[in-house]
């Protein structure tokens, strides 16, 4: 039976036909108690999962980092079955470590990793694909209408390896950043003034990503000073490194790989306060929305940087 807009529990990758609607979550859930798990959100068009190989890569890398036992190939087959049923919309997958006999935070180590609980929600909706950006490798990425953005005071936590870059269930910093963006928009006098995304710093003060997206930017070489040792071209795209904060998003990986063999591969470079007046282009991106070009960026000082 087709299930949409409700959570189902995939009891086992080997028993996909036994998918059961999820009516409740145990208070013993390690995902609920400790954020012990991860998630990924997948767009579906015409019954196919967008960027499925990249989501498979995320499942594998996160399972390794968190020491979880997941048959990613079997799981992806199951996800494709649900995508064909859904046809158009979004699949959200949450994977948590199964309850442990060990008291507290600990878990029983196993060579193959811990058993998991796997939840899936299918949500019908249209995924906009009117405009597209062709990457140097030929891949087409959806492009949304331009949006105004604002710098936020919220900051993202720093994590050690192997947690840095993971899309774990520990997302309180993003929750607070998103709340700040909503408060800003509540004070906007009209819809035209509402911010489509917010730019967030990490604990070192570098601007790292959006509240729900990664960022790419270009710098205006004409605004360099003679004392600037760094030289760059107006056509060069940069993205902040994510060694300690942020999420290595699927679309970020797609774009970086799309430029990898071009004459101007994307460079990882911190985005500092002093760089903001030098920005010539900026866009946010994620796996559902694709590219979100920025029309203007409002700084913490209230100054507005407009992009052509």
Automatic annotation (TrEMBL):
<dbReference type="InterPro" id="IPR050571">
    <property type="entry name" value="Class-IV_PLP-Dep_Aminotrnsfr"/>
</dbReference>
<dbReference type="Pfam" id="PF01063">
    <property type="entry name" value="Aminotran_4"/>
</dbReference>
<comment type="pathway">
    <text>Amino-acid biosynthesis; L-isoleucine biosynthesis; L-isoleucine from 2-oxobutanoate: step 4/4.</text>
</comment>
<dbReference type="InterPro" id="IPR036038">
    <property type="entry name" value="Aminotransferase-like"/>
</dbReference>
<keyword id="KW-0456">Lyase</keyword>
<dbReference type="InterPro" id="IPR001544">
    <property type="entry name" value="Aminotrans_IV"/>
</dbReference>
<dbReference type="InterPro" id="IPR043132">
    <property type="entry name" value="BCAT-like_C"/>
</dbReference>
<dbReference type="GO" id="GO:0046394">
    <property type="term" value="P:carboxylic acid biosynthetic process"/>
</dbReference>
<comment type="similarity">
    <text>Belongs to the class-IV pyridoxal-phosphate-dependent aminotransferase family.</text>
</comment>
<dbReference type="GO" id="GO:0004084">
    <property type="term" value="F:branched-chain-amino-acid transaminase activity"/>
</dbReference>
<dbReference type="GO" id="GO:0016829">
    <property type="term" value="F:lyase activity"/>
</dbReference>
<comment type="function">
    <text>Acts on leucine, isoleucine and valine.</text>
</comment>
<comment type="pathway">
    <text>Amino-acid biosynthesis; L-leucine biosynthesis; L-leucine from 3-methyl-2-oxobutanoate: step 4/4.</text>
</comment>
<protein>
    <recommendedName>
        <fullName>branched-chain-amino-acid transaminase</fullName>
        <ecNumber>2.6.1.42</ecNumber>
    </recommendedName>
</protein>
<dbReference type="InterPro" id="IPR043131">
    <property type="entry name" value="BCAT-like_N"/>
</dbReference>
């Amino acid at each position: 039976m087709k299930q949409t807009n409700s959570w189902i529990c995939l009891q086992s990758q080997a028993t996909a036909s036994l998918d059961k609607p999820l009516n409740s979550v145990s208070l013993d859930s390690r995902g609920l108690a400790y954020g012990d798990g991860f998630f990924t959100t997948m767009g579906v068009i015409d019954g196919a999962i967008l960027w499925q190989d990249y989501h498979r890569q995320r499942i594998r890398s996160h399972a390794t980092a968190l020491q979880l036992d997941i048959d990613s190939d079997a799981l992806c087959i199951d996800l494709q079955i649900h995508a064909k049923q859904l046809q158009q919309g979004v699949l959200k997958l949450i994977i948590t470590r199964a309850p442990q006999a060990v008291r507290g935070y600990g878990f029983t180590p196993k060579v193959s990793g811990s058993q998991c609980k796997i939840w899936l929600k299918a949500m019908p909706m249209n995924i906009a694909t009117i405009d597209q950006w062709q990457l140097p490798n030929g891949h087409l990425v959806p492009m949304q209408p331009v949006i105004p953005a604002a710098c936020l005071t919220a900051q993202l936590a720093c994590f050690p390896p192997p947690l840095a870059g993971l899309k774990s269930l520990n997302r309180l910093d993003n929750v607070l950043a998103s709340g700040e963006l909503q408060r800003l928009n509540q004070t906007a006098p009209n819809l035209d003034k509402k911010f489509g995304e917010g730019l967030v710093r990490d604990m070192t003060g570098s601007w790292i990503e959006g509240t729900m997206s990664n960022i790419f930017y270009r710098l205006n070489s004409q605004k360099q000073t003679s004392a600037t040792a760094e030289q760059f071209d107006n056509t060069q795209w940069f993205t902040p490194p994510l060694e300690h904060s942020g999420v290595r998003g699927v679309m970020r990986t797609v774009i970086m790989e799309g430029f990898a063999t071009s004459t101007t591969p994307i460079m990882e470079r911190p985005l500092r306060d002093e760089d903001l007046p030098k920005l010539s282009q900026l866009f946010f991106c994620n796996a559902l929305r694709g590219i979100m070009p920025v029309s203007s960026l409002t700084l913490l000082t209230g100054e507005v940087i407009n992009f052509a």
